[in-house]
Amino acid sequence: MQNSEALALTAVLLATAGDLAKRINDGVVARGFEGRPAYGFAFVRLAPDGATVTELAAHLGVTKQAASQLVDEIVRKGYAERRPHPGDARARLVVLTERGWACTRAAEEAAAEVVAGWVELLGEGGVGVLRDHLARIAPYGRIRPAW
């Protein structure tokens, strides 16, 4: 593959990922939740059992201060709450509230709508092949932002 072809491939992959994140966020907002894509990346780490600010910072690839500010924001908006950590009296566990779980379900619905559009373009089989090929090269683990 020529460098120009590799660059073109990376451009369409990044554009698709950016469009996907935007459209999921737009769908979440349309369903009555306020937020931004960073919330979704945080919610992935907080579900299902919660996380400390330190664990969230490591997951997001940001400083503890930045993660703490994000937690303050999602707590203020009712998406999460701080609880005593069951295994460490010095730490606090950040867990999703019912509103946070509802926002997560709204994101799943929005993602399904986006993928339905892809099925219209590529067909069910084409989307399946795309998913399988991307799964072979994608890193494993929880979804993380690529700031």
CA(first)-CA(last) distance: 27 Å
Helix content: 55-70%
Mean pLDDT: 92
| DSSP summary: helix tally | 5
Taking the sheet with the most strands, its summary is: 2 strands, antiparallel
* Helix and strand sequence: HHHHEEH
**How would the global form be characterised?**
globular
Structural class: mainly alpha
Q: Spatial order of the strands in the main sheet?
A: 1-2
Bin the strand percentage.
5-15%
In short:
By secondary structure, this protein is mostly helical. The chain has helices spanning 3-30, 37-46, 53-60, 64-76, 98-137; strands at residues 80-84, 92-96.
Structure description:
- With 147 residues, the protein is mainly alpha-helical.
- Helix content is 67%, strand content 7%.
- It has a two-stranded antiparallel sheet with strand order 1-2.
- Helix 3 packs across helix 4.
- The longest helix has 40 residues.
- The radius of gyration is 17 Å and the shape is globular.
- The mean pLDDT is 92.
Sequence-ordered SSE layout with sheet pairings:
Layout: H1 3-30, H2 37-46, H3 53-60, H4 64-76, E1 80-84, E2 92-96, H5 98-137
Antiparallel strand pairs: 1-2
Helix pairs in contact: 1-5, 2-3, 3-4
Question: Which short descriptors sum up this protein?
Answer:
single chain, 147 residues, mainly alpha
